[in-house]
Amino acid sequence: MVSTQAIQYLKSDPILWIPSTIWFELMRRRVREIQRTQISIVKKNPPNLGILTGLLNHMLRSTTSTPIIYDYHVRESLALLEYRNVLETAGMFFLQDFDLSSSTCLDEVQQIDDVNVLGLMGVTAKAQRDRAVERMDALRSDESESEEYPLGRTPTWTRLKLAIANSPAMIMRPWSWSSKLSNTQLNVGRLVVMFTRHVWLMLTPEIFKGIRPYPSSLQEAMRCWTITSIDDTLTSIAFEACNAGLHDNAGVTPGRLGPKSRAFVDRCSLFFPDPDASNKRNAQSQWCALWEGDGYIAEYHRTMKTLDGVQQASLKQGLCDIFSDLHCLPASGARVWVQKKDAIVFITNPAFYRIDRVGRGGESHRRAPRARRTMKVIKGKRIFAADLMDSQPFDADGNLRRKTERQKRREIHKKMTMAKKNKRVPPPPRYRRCRPFPMDELKHVTTDDEMHVD
What is the pTM of this model? Predict the structure, then answer.
C-alpha cells in the first residue's frame, strides 16, 4: 500500500528540478549583493553598524542553510522586521525598507549599538560608534538650522534683497491664519475685504494669469496678499525686501542703503488715510477714484463719521493689527500700483523673514560648512575584484578563476593517496659499456705460474 502511494506520488512529478547554473547563479548573486551592502555600510559607518552587520551575516548564512541564531540582538532585529511572517508569506526574507542614503539605513531596528553589540564588534567599535553619533547629531543640527535660517541668522542686506527678489518662498515663513484674528470687529473685516477687492480691480485683465481676487471674508482677503497667491494670480511680479525692524542692538541696520523702509503697521495709514490727507485728492492720481463714490477709502471715511473717538481709535487699531500680519502689500506711494518694466512690485513683510537681523559684511552669516571630501573616482581593491569576478561568465563546475600550472599540480598532489605518494619507483637500469679483456696480460700470468711449479 505504501509503495503504491509512493509510486503515484512520484508519477505526479512533485519535484521541481532546477539547472545547476540557475541555482548557483542565484546563490552567487545573493551572496554578492549582501557583500556589497556590507562594504557600503562599513564605509558609511552608521551608529548601528553592529546591528546591521549581525542582520546581514544571518542573511548570508541563510543562503545555504537555516542557521541557529545565537546572538540576542539578531533575534530582536528579526522580530522587529517580522521575519517569520515574511518567510511564511514569501518563502524568502527581504529588506525592502533598507536605504543606504538614510542616517541609520533601517528604521525598524535598533538605531545605536549597545554595549553587548560593541563587545562583539571588537575593541575599536565604541570609538567608531561615538564618531558616528557625533556626526549624525551635527548633521541634524545643521539641517534644522538650515531649514529655519536658509541664509543664516544674520545675512547681509545685499544677500537678503537678492533672496527676496529671486526666491521669496525660501526666506519667508508661510502665512497662516491666527486665531486671535477671529475676534476682529465686523467693520474692520468689511473694510479690509473692500480694500482688497477695489485694489485688485484696478489692474487690467491682461496682467492676470489666474482669477482676479474677490474675497468674501477677512481670512480670504488676507490670503490674497500672500506670495503664493500673488504668484498664482499675476503673470509678472517683483518682490522687494523691507528693512523695517531688522536693526541690531544699537538700532542700526547694517548695509542699508537709502531711507528706512516703512513698517507694515505704519502702511495702514497709507491705504486708510485720514480725511484731512488731501494730497491724495489729486485728480491725476490713482488714489482719486478710491476717495470718491463707492471707493473703499470713501466708505472708510463714512464709517469713521458714525463712530465716537474711542470707537474710531479701536477701528484704526484693528486695521493696524491686520496690516501687521499681512504677507505682502503693493509697493504703493504716490501711486497705488508701482510697475518696473512689465512686473508689478510688491513689498514683503519682514516679520516673516527667517533671520534674526541684518548683519555686516564681515560678519559670519552661518556656520561654516564642513569641508567636503573629494569625490572618489577609483574603486577599492575588494570592490573592483568582486566586480571583475561578476563580469566573467559563470562556470557550472564552480571554477570561477583561472588556475595556474602550479595550482593545478598542487591540487593533483593533494588528491594522491599516501600509499601512492610513498610508493618507491626503482631507478632505471644504467647502461654499461663492454670492454675487451687484455690477452697479453693473461699470457704473462700463465708463464709465471709455470715457472714456480715444482
Answer: 0.52
